Amino acid sequence: MPRLVRSVRRWLLVFAAAPLTSLGAQQQPIDWDKLRDETVQILADYLKINTTNPTGNELQTALYLKRILDREGIEAQILDTAELKPAGRANLYARLKGNGTKKAIALVHHMDVVPADTRYWAVDPFAGLVKDGYVWGRGALDMKGEGIIHLMAMIALKRSGVPLNRDIVFIANSDEELGSTGAIVFVQRHPDLLADVEYLITEGGDNKFENGKLAYYGVGIAEKRTFWQHLTVHGTPSHGSRPTKQNPVPRLVAALDKIGRYETPLHITPGVDKYFRDIARGYTGKQKQWLSNVKVALTDPAARQWILNDLYWNAILRNTISLTGLHGSNKTNVIPAEASADIDIRLLPDADPKQLLATLQGVVGDTAVQFAPLLAPKPPLESPIETEFFHAIEKAAHDRDPNAYVTTPMLTGATDRPTYRQLGIVTYGFDPFKVESADAQRGVHGNDERLSAENVGFGVHYLYDVLRYAQGTRVTP
Ligand SMILES: [Zn+2]
After folding, report:
1. How far does the centroid of ligand 1 lie from the alpha carbon of residue 109, in Å?
2. What is the dihedral angle through the alpha carbons of 158, 395, 388, 279, rounded to the nearest 10 degrees?
């Protein structure tokens, strides 16, 4: 398409989608190619600030974001510098004001990144390199790239003068990768800043894109909860040459064997039910039939085996237990005073931690085996699907890929979403790009993390449309 025709078309599209009563001279068309290039540069500079956690250093990224927001005339505050430890950390909060007829939307990302082992990288992970059509660096995907897409979509809304019924709130947190203290401190200290927020997006979506083909747009409405346990058995230390009944190691091993063989019950949450029904369209014959009604399928041995053989499907259908850490004696000839094990338990959103613990204690059937939590489980996270925001995502997704669908895969990992959800905010995992699964698997917490310039451009425009559609068509009378 010739450039002129293309830009006129874009111009018309911006206006065509706007509420009828708000058409006015104040709205400015957006040059999307220019905005993409600007966003790539801003992301590259963001990646240059090393926020490896520990120790974070997020005050520097917060100052960087604030400078950009100041320049755009969007009020921003650096918060929690004294509360977040060690020194040099911060949260950032900004708000683009709308007319206040509807509640606000918050865009949340974390500024910290996991360590990068430079020995395995082809490029310097903190050079902010733009090469071969990609922005390279630690955090490009998890999740500085998303953060900058949040920032630039908000800025694009302001620059283009789209009338907003909902304020857009922008939050950048510290420490998601370790203790989540950034989000926790923010929610504890600033509930007032979140009081009018109805919807919140952050990481934890999952758009399935393989070999250049999009299977679906995945919106995270629920996630598993970590409920790690430390098991201990005490005994009497003695010499290994004289076996004794007071050896804690075999007692612990017997308990672990029972836990390892215990099968947790299957349970289908509403989001998981929808996910299976949605993906059924990609299958044929019996498998299509099974996925269309998982509840019934799980009563059929052949179907059940096929479904549970998929590690991901198995994990979203039940509480899972993985035996991971083991410690007995550090000398072959010494019976230790204590033997211990760590267990990685992941609860479904609606599971009761106390009940599962009681069940496991019953399975073990030995009061000498002591259970101690390694961390408190986060609040449950399951957000509703029938909302204006979810429908806005569906509309923006269908604009781009008319044949694609939006579904709700459950995240088996953990994010900061439950921390915000406990305030009653409808919280979604939303990834604003189509990253090849192979690229994501290699890059997220791995090596050569990168985001294509094409995806940067796609993401800003996609999120801009979602935010615009989520305003609804109602305007102030
Ligand atoms: Zn992350």
Report:
1. 8
2. -130
Strands, sheet with 104-110, edge to edge from the N-terminal-most edge strand? 76-79, 91-96, 168-173, 104-110, 197-202, 426-429
Q: What is the pTM of this model?
A: 0.86
Structural domain that includes position 231: 225-373
Total count of domains within the chain: 2
Instruction: Please tell me the predicted confidence (pLDDT) of residue 442.
Output: 87
Res 179: pLDDT: 87
- Cα of 445 vs centre of ligand 1, distance in Å, is 9
Same domain, 314 and 385: no
Question: How far, in Å, from the CA of 67 to the mean position of ligand 1?
Answer: 23
Q: Reply yes or no on whether the pLDDT at 176 is more than 60.
A: yes
CA distance 275 to 294: 10
Q: Looking at 373, 399, 428, which one is the last position of a domain?
A: 373
Dist. CA 139 → ligand 1 center (Å): 8
**pLDDT per residue over 49-89, tens digit each?**
999 999 999 999 999 999 999 999 999 999 999 999 999 99
CA of residue 415 to ligand 1 center, whole Å? 7
- Tell whether 317 and 388 lie within a shared domain: no
CA of 450 to the centre of ligand 1 (A): 14
Q: How far is the CA of 406 from the centre of ligand 1 (A)?
A: 22
Same domain, residue pair 246 and 279: yes
Same domain? For 246 and 229 the reply is yes
**Interval between CA 163 and ligand 1 midpoint (Å):** 31
Residue 111 Cα to ligand 1 middle (Å): 9
Strand partners, 231: 341, 371
User: How many A from CA of 72 to the centre of ligand 1?
Assistant: 27
**How far is residue 2's CA from residue 375's CA, in Å, rounded to a whole number?**
58
